[in-house]
Specification:
It is built from 10 helices and 8 strands. The protein is an alpha+beta fold and 327 residues long. The strands form 2 sheets. It has a 5-stranded antiparallel beta sheet, with no helix packed on it. Strands 4-1-7 form a 3-stranded mixed beta sheet, with no helix packed on it. Helix 4 (86-98) runs parallel beside helix 6 (121-134).
């Protein structure tokens, strides 16, 4: 279990660094406020992850089992005696998950799902958790679909709310992520969990306030995908929309989104990722949308993309068509 705790802590720190990096990498002469926001946002993520896991994980922290093997043997006997008992399979799946037996945990949650005729939110959430652990802590389209199904069955499932909230946050859907975290808070967890959630919600509120487009520097887009490329979007891909100067250099503004089309996207100086480098009012710029198979901003072989030229501050909505492929 200690190895898992170490791995989970590293994942939380990596997630915090990923989200805070655009602010932390500001020039040394950049605004110190951005560094404080980055540090605070990272601390909130790590604290929230620890608090939420302590409360909603399957591990009995206060009274850990002395002999997990004996416990699993008893649970296994229960499933053999009552093969159609969904709860017995759920208990077995959770026990296997605690000791890191992912294939056996997956099989147990699948049995629980079948025994409940697909009506157990706990079985779907458990299976989704197994898939996340199998993919080194990353959600996949399969796990995301399972969490969404669990949430449809039980809008109060803490695991489904947590994982779907994190997915929405990573996709830049801040308002939707905020709603999921508020729903988690409304479940009435212990005070320390409420405090962690309140800090996470406050951090999202700051991000929402900072993401509102500046009218003087705004670019309004309708991003679409060419019909001939509709079936060529890789699973797990990410959409990046950039604003660059025609003279080159790092992006003046960027947004990371899920590849859904058509999609309305607004960019402005509020979407700058570097202190002191922002798009100006009435500036002529290049705009590009790229579907990244790797999930990183750097372009790769086979990425789909499209671009156009624009002038900031216009109120009109421009259509940006993704219709090309990187050699």
């Amino acid at each position: 279990m200690s190895a898992f705790i170490t791995w989970a802590a590293l994942c939380a720190l990596a997630a915090a660094a990923f989200l805070a990096w655009p602010l932390l990498r500001a020039d040394r002469d950049g605004a110190p406020r951005e560094r404080w926001i980055a540090a605070g946002f990272g601390a909130v993520i790590v604290a929230s992850a620890v608090a939420l896991y302590l409360h909603w994980s399957n591990w009995p922290w206060r009274n850990p089992p002395v002999e997990e093997g004996e416990n699993i043997s008893a649970l296994l006997e229960a499933t053999q005696a009552h093969a159609d008992d969904a709860q017995a399979w759920l208990d077995l799946g959770r026990a296997y998950l605690r000791v890191g037996q992912l294939p056996l945990a997956r099989r147990s949650f699948e049995h629980a799902d079948r025994a409940s005729n697909g009506k157990s939110a706990a079985a779907l959430s458990g299976l989704g958790q197994v898939i996340v652990f199998e993919n080194n802590g990353s959600q996949t389209p399969e796990s995301s679909a399972l969490f969404e199904r669990a949430l449809a069955l039980d809008p109060h499932s803490p695991q489904a709310l947590f994982y779907t909230g994190v997915a929405l946050l990573n996709d830049g859907k801040l308002a939707d992520a905020r709603a999921r975290f508020i729903a988690m808070r409304d479940l009435g967890p212990p005070p320390q969990i409420v405090d962690a959630l309140d800090k996470q919600i406050a951090a999202i509120d700051v991000a929402i306030a900072n993401s509102k487009p500046d009218p003087a520097t705004a670019i309004h887009l309708q991003v679409t995908l060419d019909a001939k490329l509709q079936n060529q979007v890789p699973a797990g891909a990410t959409l990046f929309v950039f604003v660059r100067s025609p003279q080159g250099g790092p992006p003046l503004a960027v947004k990371r989104l899920s590849p859904e089309f058509p999609q309305r996207v607004d960019l402005s100086a509020a979407d700058s990722v570097m202190a002191g480098r922002r798009v100006g009012a009435g500036e002529h710029v290049d705009v590009m949308a790229r579907i990244s198979a790797s999930g990183t901003p750097m372009g790769g072989h086979g990425d789909l993309y499209g671009g156009l030229k624009a002038v900031t501050g216009s109120t009109s909505v421009r259509t940006l068509v993704i219709d090309q492929r990187t050699p």
